[in-house]
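Section: Multi-chain targets

For targets with more than one molecule, the full set of components is provided together so that the structure can be written out for the assembly as a whole rather than chain by chain. Components appear in the order listed by the source. The example entry contains two components.
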Amino acid sequence: MMAFNFIKKALIAFLMLSPGYVLADQFLDQVKSSINSPPITRGNFIQHRILVGVSKRLTSEGYFIVDKSRGILWITEKPIYQALAVTSSGITVSNKSNTLMNLSSRNDPSVRYVNELLLAIFSGDIASLDKLFTHSGEITANGWAMELIPRNSASTVFKKVAILGNSSVSHITLVSKEGDLTDIAFANVKPVASLTQDEVLQLQ
Amino acid sequence: MKSSSFSKALALIFFALTAGLASWTFANLSFISSRIDNNIFSLLPKLERNPVSEEFINRISSSGERSLVVLISSDNIDTSLEAEKALRASIKGLELTSPLADDDFSAYISLLKRHRSSLITREDIHLLDTQLPSFWYDKANSLAYSMGGLLLPWGEDPFGLSNDWLYRLGRSSKVHPYGDSLVVDHDGISYVVIPLEASRPLSSIQDQNILADGINAAITETANKFRGIHILRSGVAFIASDTSKVARDDISTIGLISAIAAFVLIASIFRSFYAITVTLTTVSIAFLYAVLACLFIFPKIYILTMAFGTSLIGMSVDYCLYWLTASIDDDKNPLDRRRYLLPGMFLALATTTIGYCLLAITPFPVLSQMAVFSIGGIISAWLTVILIFPYVKNLRFNSNNTYSILRYIKPGFLNNRGTLRWATIGLVLLLSIYGAFAFKTNDDIRSLASFDKGLVNEQLEVSKILDIPSPSQFFIVTGSSEADALNHTESLSKDLDQLVSAGYISGYQSITKYLPSIASQNKASASYASSNKEVALHKIAKEMGMNHEWVKQLNKVDPPLTMADLKDLPIYKKLSYLWFDSGSGARSTAVLLMGLRGQPAVDELAKLENPNITWVDKPQEISQVFRRYRTLFSYIVLLGYLLTFAAIYFKFKSDAWRAVLPPVFATFITLGILSFMGETIGLLSVIAFALLLGVGTDYGIFLLQYPNDKKVVFSISIAALMTLISFGSLSLSSIPALHSFGIALFFGIFLSWLLTIFFARRSNA
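Its structure, encoded as tokens over all components, is:
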């Protein structure tokens, strides 16, 4: 049942929306020339979610690390702690006491795509994104804005993705098919020289 | 005079009938060629042991006929995707549709909301039974604050249980959408998958070839354009098209060899263009009736029948030869000649027809069709010779050099050389005994037809990469009701899970993955009502500001999902493929297997059979039918010899053995030669021996019937040579069935002829 692969697609879709990626064509060339793509990046995020049927607005914050050779670490610190690690061997979500989700690319080869795609995105491989989405965009006073629509509705769980950025991605909005909305703002995105011992462990 | 006018009338009727049929055939050539079938599935025997399994095989073959798959791989997925675009562009002109990733899960998701408590993965059931409220509270929180989106809105599935269920289903497919394309990963290689489907049924060879050739050309073009890409094909159309081409080549090669040999032979004996024309006309009439007989009895004519049918050239030429050689230097009235030849020719026709009748009663459609083809052909050739030839002017020939060379063949040679004769008899006996014990049997289904190795390997590789279940080895589970059938299926699934972990199979497809039994769904609902989860739900509701109704909704135990609930969903199309609704109470479902590891796996799977679970192993079933019929035919051949002996004993008394023993020895020595050559003996070889019984005893009967006619030795020798050529050329066929038939008859006919001459009574003339 190919149609049931959307969880992976969901992960692919949202993980590729991390800061620092670029797309093709004239508009994309401009985006590309304005964006930096160092080997390791680190930054903070603030996330707002509006969930269907839930009146409370959920706000969380934390930091992220992108290491082209290892993978991606997405740490939520407030109001709860949880860590998302994406590497070539799989995807795990854990809190301080439990592993809440674990997808191994050994059981499911397509999980590998999440990592490959992300790294392609960070090294400026525009072709990869273009395969999954059609885009529209404009250059604004503060940088650029673009909107991505999935080429194939079966391949992602998102109806729409919107991104704002300048020298790095500053803002992402994800709209799921069922209407849940996630809005992420990035801050202090900058290159770092190396990972800490703990971060290396989490990305193994 | 009265009988002469009667015979004239018969000749006229036959002539008029033939002329009429010939003009009808000529006017309807396109209709006839549209009835030529190259569906390789239709070659399988019709077995009614299990109607549901036959029905399932029909479903597979009718959908399988039209679908094709092309896989593209390279060291870079982008190159593969570019190649896909190029390939799709170059097959645009063909009548193909390409089903893309369909978004049929939205409907399933809405269904899931109504059966939330019933559809829960085994792992989650375990967690629900064991984990404390804090775990569920953490999980709900984690999902609420996660970065991405899930399949169901958080409000509908705060613990991600339905998500896990969907993910587990998603994992059962290896193919996943990738932008506009489909991609599958196998052994670290990414393949771009191009599923194709013929827009309309491929009813004729032409349609099939146009499609297969078109795609093959596009593949070659694409492969040339993109360096380093690797393309795999899979689909019945590719194999069928290739097989029909092989069969067509066989028909032209074998037909050409037989025809040239026949005409060279006739030309050299009779030195007459007229004789060739008469023979050619007889062969054409034989083919006309052969094809029409098949059209009349069968809905389709198999291309293999046509390939086998080329041996008809030799058989029909035989009857011409009996007449034409009898006419050499013969001044008898043609009607007297007929009276003289009729008993021998009638016996010859009867014995040969009986041989072919044995072929007709097999449950293999293609074999019975070959028999009908041959019987129709030889009877009409025989009738042409008997009814028409007496009225054909100037059918009288003079002897020449060729004739005198053949005169050196002396019946009963070595008869007066005691030691040499006994040594020969000893050798014949020894070789026969060797043959009787040395042969090896082989009833493998693959002895019926052979497919291009490269294509078969591609097909196997594609099946492995896409995890396509076996179309011929599967289980049929039956129950008195839907619930009963699903229960049995689940208990089979448990056994299959063990075989998966033991490595016998790589996986299986079962309807219960989508629709668990009522018992399993009730068990899931019981766990879903866990108080730990409920405590967590109250806590999270409070925190998120959710109302009482929300909590109530998520604590509710839902009714179990049934087949009827799935009826209107797009996914039903895929599931109903496995599901058999007999109308009354009973329900059956097929459980399909992936990645069977050879015979040990088959042995383990067969053990799982019980009154509710039927193990279907089509190849083995067919092989068993082959073995059964091979054994049966061996007895029939034995019985045939006894009956023939009994029949001619009344006429020829103590000389009767001279007609019967030579083909018997020939059969055993042929067995010896074939084993020595490494050939195995299957049903087709035994059928060849049955035909040898018919043809081989003819030689002896003729010699006994006309002991003093020197021309009879001549005509049986020519006839043997002719048969030798036409069946011998079948042994050149690349189709194993025709090859083993041809090679058995090649040696059989030659030895039978030689031994008949050897054992014949010395002629007094």
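The mean pLDDT of chain B is 84.
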